[in-house]
Amino acid sequence: MTLFADIVATSRQVASTSSRTAKITALAELLRALDAGEVAPAVSILSGEPRQGRVGIGWATLTAVATGPAAGPSITVHDVDAAVDRVAALTGPGSVAARNAALTEVFARATEAEAHFLRALFSGGLRQGALEGVMVEAVAKAAAVPAAAVRRAAMLAGDLPAVAALALGPDPAASLAAVGLRPLHAVLPMLAASAPDVAAALGETGRASIEWKLDGARIQLHRDGDEVRIFTRNLNDITARLPAVVAVARQLPGNCFILDGEAMGWFEEDRPSRFQESMSQFGSHAGSAGLAARFFDILHFDGGDLLDRPLHERAEALARLAGPWRIPSLVTDDAVAAGAFFDDAVARGHEGVMVKAIGSTYEAGRRGGAWRKVKPVRTYDLVVLGAEWGHGRRQGWLSNLHLGARDPATGEPVMVGKTFKGLTDALLTWQTAELLARETHREGITVFVRPELVVEIALDGVQSSTRYPGGVALRFARVKRYRPEKSPVEADTLDTLRALLG
Q1: Which residues are catalytic?
Q2: Is 293 exposed, middle or buried (0-12, 13-18, 19+ CB in 10 A)?
Q3: What's the whole-model pTM score?
């Protein structure tokens, strides 16, 4: 049986390197050493979440478990998996005490390193760099099978740990090939890479379908006879939240199908609601009844899988089935026509466009070059108010920036969001030195600084916020560059950001 300490050691090794090859090699070596029954729980844990799903125990509860660290490792992978089983099953009256007892039992046998890992695992805060794409390649390397075979089986099953167990079991090639698409069972969605504009996107894809990129929630709609199910991009079942979409599914002229699309709110004349309003409804069982769906792809239609069919054939099938609920598109290789379509989509209130190679297959679970998303580039000059110490491979660097926009009434910067994206190692090193030189005080992991540095931030937009004093929050903010030639008085204002709310 494999010691849990081996999982912890491998996790630390993976988190400490930026080399994808090194991550894959370390994970593959561990996977080869596992017993058959340990593969699924180990892959789940190393991917960041136990196979039972998020247990969601508060950090305060976990740190209050009164046990000292064990002198040496004795817990096995099976022990941890069984402990998660017990804790996840404890609900209702008396469950708090029972959970504490179960936690105390496992933590009493944990070394200091194991206890730290377990707290992150139970609280849902595990971050270690073993992302699913890396894990797929590690499983393939450990099993000596093509990564494409593991990736395809994982996307069809929607369960990488179970697929890993197949790959590392007897006759892996046949076992993986036997995994197929099943209506009413979610599959991982195909993802898109980014492109700076439609001309660049067309340069990568050639002749393509240009489609509105809706700013809603990605959904996967399944129907098999009278049964309908709807899943999120994370494969959560949300059927009960979208009764209007269920009703549409039952009206469509097909008996068995799987559609890929977006759920969102709409105004009259086919104009979309703001993202924040759609997401507010999406998160509410009571308010989501008004959300509608539009579809852009089809994976299965009345007994036939379409994953390996070219996009133009899938588009024809989608048009026959979904009709008016299909997202508008233009097939072209003309950059001028594609640009005009992009401008029209943005003018209608959409997020941008998708550019999809017309002959591409549906590569579920992959972010390939056949699909490109193009959105308007918005950049703003904001003031750095502070930063949080990083963890994992960013240990020792100030990473997560606190960003402010100028209040036009006072001239002072007001916080509007955070970001740790877009920072290279060189920029993190420079940033840490510059911020520490401007430090005013600290609170926990946050170092607050004099508001002197201006940084150019790219973002997808803003949304209303009660969390930040400026009343807005940045969406998908990332660092473009620092602006040493600019002073804080030249930074963008709250009014400029608020104008994005429409």
Answers
A1: 213
A2: buried
A3: 0.66
